[in-house]
Amino acid sequence: MFAHLSALIGGILTAGWAGSLGCFVGPLIIWLAKKDTMPFVDDQGKEALNFNITVGIIFLALAVLSIVTLGIGLVIAIPAWVIIGIAWLVLSIIAAIKANEGVAYRYPLTLRLIK
Predict the structure, then answer these.
(1) Residue 108 has pLDDT above 70, yes or no
(2) For a tag on the chain, would you pick the N or C end, based on fewer CB atoms within 10 A?
């Protein structure tokens, strides 16, 4: 549960100035600290980490699109950032609730970079 919530806390505390860095540092620390001793934390920590890395990659790609197109890409990027941000918030809360219940949660459309 804390791996999922730490992403929310990191995202709220950085308020966008650190990009998605604040969103995956918490899950990374929790996963690295507990992966060998707690199998459920290992599974959910990887899941939270993969999801937040995926969201970070998408946000970065939209920022690059905006820069490369000299701002014209913001027409696509700004609404996408809002939609993805809301989805990130909702899915992270759902994952934390499920993890608190002891149910393994799988985020949809997530790159499984850490196995």
Answers:
(1) yes
(2) C
Q: Determine the length of the chain.
A: 115
Nearest to 5 by CA among 26, 19, 33, 22: 26
Nearest 10 degrees: Cα torsion 91, 96, 98, 99: 140
Residues near 81 by beta carbon (within 8 Å), at least 6 away in sequence: 59, 62
pLDDT score at 21: 63
Contact by Cβ (8 Å): 112, 50: yes
Confidence of residue 56 (pLDDT cuts 50, 70, 90): confident
* Whole-model pTM over 0.90: no
Residue 2's contacts (CB-CB under 8 Å, 6 or more residues apart) are 26, 30
Percent of the chain as helix, strand, coil, to the nearest 5: 75, 0, 25
